[in-house]
């Protein structure tokens, strides 16, 4: 599918509105350039949905989430950052394993199967990309997805006001 990145994200964020309002979380769509990528809409949506869901879920009411992207040569990146609870250093690799959830009093209060990021990682691998995490407990987390940039050569960088 041909995906216009910024417009696409705006649309995905619409579907999160009820959740965001309920928890008073602000999401900043910082994708400035609406470049077009050719990608698997189903897989990409799953990735974006899960990263957003986690950024909202593992965050206090009133928290913030930032989504940005950039493109360098043959790679484009999607970055989802939050100022939520963070992930201890020694568990940052394990969160991508099936059924792995962080053990603490807070995560016990939140539901989840621990499958989200395992499937995210699988899908990204299927798209020949990578995912990495940077996080600090009490500060927040940043997930960076890097994917090969496939375009159809047509430029339509329609800029919208941020
Ligand atoms: P599911 O996604 O199936 O509902 P889940 O959210 O527990 O369940 P994952 O999405 O795989 O599973 O995440 C694994 C664990 O990593 C989570 O339980 C949570 O402890 C931690 N985690 C994931 N994203 C974040 C984040 N943005 N901030 C803090 N912790 C996170
Ligand atoms: Mg999850």
UniProtKB/TrEMBL annotation:
Q: Name the domain of life this protein comes from.
A: Bacteria
Q: Does the keyword Secreted apply?
A: no
Which key words are in the record? Kinase, Membrane, Phosphoprotein, Transferase, Transmembrane, Transmembrane helix, Two-component regulatory system
Location in the cell reads: Membrane
Can you tell me which residues the record assigns to a coiled coil? none
Q: Which GO terms describe its biological process?
A: cellular response to phosphate starvation
Provide the leader sequence positions: none
Q: What is its main location?
A: membrane
Q: GO MF terms on file?
A: phosphoprotein phosphatase activity; phosphorelay sensor kinase activity
- Where's the Histidine kinase domain? 1-151
Name one cellular component (GO) term: plasma membrane
Tell me the protein's name: histidine kinase
Organism the protein comes from: Liquorilactobacillus ghanensis DSM 18630
The residues of the intact protein that this chain contains are 312 to 473 of 473
């Amino acid at each position: 599918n041909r995906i216009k990145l910024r417009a696409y994200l705006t649309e995905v964020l619409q579907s999160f509105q009820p959740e965001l309002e309920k928890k008073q979380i602000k999401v900043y769509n910082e994708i400035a350039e609406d470049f077009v990528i050719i990608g698997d809409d189903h897989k990409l949506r799953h990735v974006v949905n899960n990263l957003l869901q986690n950024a909202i879920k593992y965050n206090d009411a009133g928290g913030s989430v930032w989504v940005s992207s950039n493109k360098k040569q043959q790679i484009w990146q999607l970055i989802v950052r939050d100022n939520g609870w963070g992930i201890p250093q020694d568990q940052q690799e394990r969160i991508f394993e099936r059924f792995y959830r962080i053990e603490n009093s807070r995560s016990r209060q939140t539901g989840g199967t621990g499958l989200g990021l395992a499937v995210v990682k699988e899908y990204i691998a299927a798209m020949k990309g990578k995912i990495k995490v940077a996080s600090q407990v009490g500060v927040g987390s940043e997930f960076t997805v890097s994917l090969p940039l496939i375009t159809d050569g047509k430029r339509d960088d329609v800029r919208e006001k941020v």
